[in-house]
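Duplicate of earlier report; Glycosyltransferase involved in cell wall biosynthesis input re-posted below.
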Amino acid sequence: MTLPSKTSDLRVALFSGNYNMVTDGANKALNRLVSYLLAQGAQVRVYSPTVDAPAFEPAGDLISLPSFAIPGRAEYRVATGLPRAVRRDLEAFAPNIVHVSSPDPSAHRAVTWARAKGLPVLGSVHTRFDTYPRYYNLAWVEPILTAILRRFYRRCDGLVAPSESMAQVLREQRMNYDISLWSRGVDRHIFDASRRDMAWRRSLGIEDHEVVVGLFSRLVMEKGLDVFADTIDQLVARGVPHRVLIVGDGPAREWFENRLPSNAVFAGYQAGTDLGRAVASMDVLFFPSITETFGNVTLEAMACSLPVVCAEATGSESLVDNGNSGRLIRPGHVHAFAQAVRGYIEDAALRAAHGAAGEARSRDFSWDRINQSVADTYLRLIRQKARVGK
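Output:
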């Protein structure tokens, strides 16, 4: 078999746990990657659970995998295996590399199938699955989950992580020894300070002089909503004037609405240029999540010239220059979060300076360059697998 030498020679079988059912950073990144590969002449086949009413149209050919809804989180599904029809489809497609993006049962079986065929496997890491149990009073599960993830990722020929900080975590956890970067880009047609809209803010009851502390995210507890609310409580207790603007939706929205002050504004789900307008109309991003592997939210806010206050955790710490474009605070340190947010609320010049530094940093992230790095990793793993097999 002739080895592929360029991107157009690739035939990629991509396994996703949730390719287009929910609009989140991981799904958007995977669809962007597939669109880029197809535009370069590569062949891609996507295998994922499907639903009757997905969040958006998928990029590329999508083959449905059997799945079940996660109890209590029905918007997500777990792919359960590779039935005979899917295996026949895989055989007919004849990929030269398999890409697995979620450590579910179907992906485990896809890795086994690829190894039996002598095909290389790339695993992409999109979230800190190992940290999720602590938000549901199941912290004792974390070591078990980490062990399961280690077995899965070490059966891959290589991994890609979205940030150097996440790659280092994976190395420390001994998940794999071949870890490359697949960063994230920002759509500058959507996220730009020019989209700031004071009339839109007024329509929400926010006055022009009010400083808006914003969050845009899927509203789930693992995004640090409890820390966000506790921090806002401290600002209120100290008499620091501000308004809270929440953009997004999710199963924790009702809890969040009840937990935040009554004058907090919930703008709901926003997408495209509407989302860009909402983000640019904030004054400070406060994002205390520790589950991000990259920090799409952080980068998009930076592109809108917002100073950012984030948890010092994987993802954000690779983006934010602490004290120059934002503040990185020890996870869960509510007092320090409040102090950092207060500093931006009370100092317009500091907001402007740090926002400008963040915007300059955001220009380093080009989607085409980033997605080509994944294609280059595919080609490298194929070459390495061929050498080992000789």
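The chain has two domains: 7-185+366-389, 193-362.

Merging into the original ticket.
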